[in-house]
Write a structure and sequence with these properties.
The protein is α/β, with parallel strands linked by helices and 234 residues long. It is built from nine helices and four strands. It binds zinc ion. The site of zinc ion has 7 residues, from helix 1 and helix 2. This is Metallopeptidase. InterPro entries: DUF4344.
Length: 234
């Protein structure tokens, strides 16, 4: 399923990207990978979903990141996700039939859930990113609910000792090279019921997909170039 529809931006080949730009690219690729992993889990485990699946997948990405990355990485991740989300929201048109919340709301919800995953430690940054004090309690509850829901799934999806990996990356693709450690982290913590190929393909747009008819995941080759261009934008 489509992670998001972004306007197609010319991919820029930036030589000598700064560490901050490299982190921006990697963090947004991570969120994309984890979001698509949620679709795979929902499909292959036949999970009941109460509410829009895209919102559930967004929440999963933050819950999973919270499990596998340290706090400095999670802080960088939400900053980079918010920066990208707001840049995209500024360019989108409102379509009430899209599967996703409007971009600005989707970004706000991400801050809300991220905060609620660790309210004791994340209030200052969440407020710096725009979260109003009035929603503090609601977001703490929303983050806690997302954590309980997805932790119940993740606790039962642990791979057996010595089991073969189930998310199987192709040998080539820039996004997969950048995500190598993250893909390994997924495979260490999640056993999908079916072997699930993960490939990079030319799609003609900046996007990522999980195809539930044949259990495979695709990151579009355009994504890295578009993220690099976004990282370089003022
Ligand atoms: Zn999606």
């Amino acid at each position: 399923m489509v992670r998001t529809i972004r306007p197609l931006v010319l991919a820029l080949c930036l030589v000598g990207a700064t560490p901050a730009a490299a982190d921006f690219v990697l963090n947004n690729l991570r969120v994309t990978l984890y979001h698509e992993l949620a679709h795979a889990l929902i499909d292959q485990l036949r999970l009941p979903v109460f509410g829009p699946e895209e919102s559930a997948a967004d929440s999963f990405a933050l819950v999973f990141a919270d499990r596998v990355h340290d706090e400095p990485t999670n802080r960088a991740l939400i900053r980079d996700l918010v920066r990208l989300g707001r840049a995209e929201a500024a360019e989108e048109y409102f379509d009430p039939w899209r599967e996703y919340m409007p971009g600005a709301q989707r970004t706000a919800r991400s801050i809300c859930i991220w905060y609620g995953l660790d309210p004791g430690a994340r209030g200052e940054l969440a407020r710096a990113l725009g979260m109003p004090r009035e929603v503090t309690r609601v977001c703490a509850e929303a983050g806690g609910a997302a954590k309980r829901a997805w932790s119940a799934v993740l606790d039962t999806a642990l791979p057996a000792e010595g089991a073969e990996i189930t998310l199987r990356p192709a040998a080539t693709g820039k996004a997969l090279r950048l995500l190598k450690a993250d893909i390994a982290a997924v495979n260490a913590r999640v056993a999908l019921p079916h072997p699930t190929p993960l490939t990079v393909e030319d799609c003609g747009q900046d996007n990522a997909y999980y195809y539930n008819f044949d259990d495979r995941m695709v990151i579009c080759s355009e994504m890295v170039g578009v993220l690099r261009a976004r990282a370089a934008a003022p």
